[in-house]
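Recall the central idea of this unit: under ordinary conditions, the amino acid sequence of a chain determines the structure it adopts. In this exercise we apply that idea directly, starting from the sequence alone.
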Amino acid sequence: MRLAFRLEALLVVHERTVSEAGAADLEAEMRAAGLPVGLVGPTRGARAAARIAEPRLDGVRMITSSEGWVILVGRTARDNDRLTFKIAAPDDIWLHAAGAPGAHVVIRNPDRRASAPAGTLAEAARLALWFSEARSEAAGDVQWTRRKNVRRARGGTSGMVLLKRFETIRVRARRPPEGT
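Accordingly, the structure predicted from this sequence is:
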């Protein structure tokens, strides 16, 4: 019944041409009839604009290291996936606790340095270990690499990745600063 009403309303509005009534009048009539107005399908321009737009950081913890570098930490598997493949740049430094499910950690690297300072790398590795299931261990290994060496695991769940090449750092888990 409702579909028939909408179809009749569309036909009534459609009988008038845009030249008879201004575009604004036609839009007002369509809105009054409960018909969707201004729907735009995905276009090449819209996709390009979405790529250029600044990525949202909801679901990601943002911490500044003692040396002033920005460290991003994912909260869930879905956030990890978005952090790693949408937010992180290819030359950012990516970290994860070895052999344990946990957060993906990214050190922003806008200057494209070969690696972050040792202190920042250690802080980020502690965060990766803390926000993983290996938190209770006295010390643990954390793998790190550039983001461009990280690939999605084919057929894997959200957040599951494969590393092309990586280095390992051993750290103790430490509670992150308050407010993260």
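The helical segments are 2-15, 23-32, 44-52, 77-87, 118-130.
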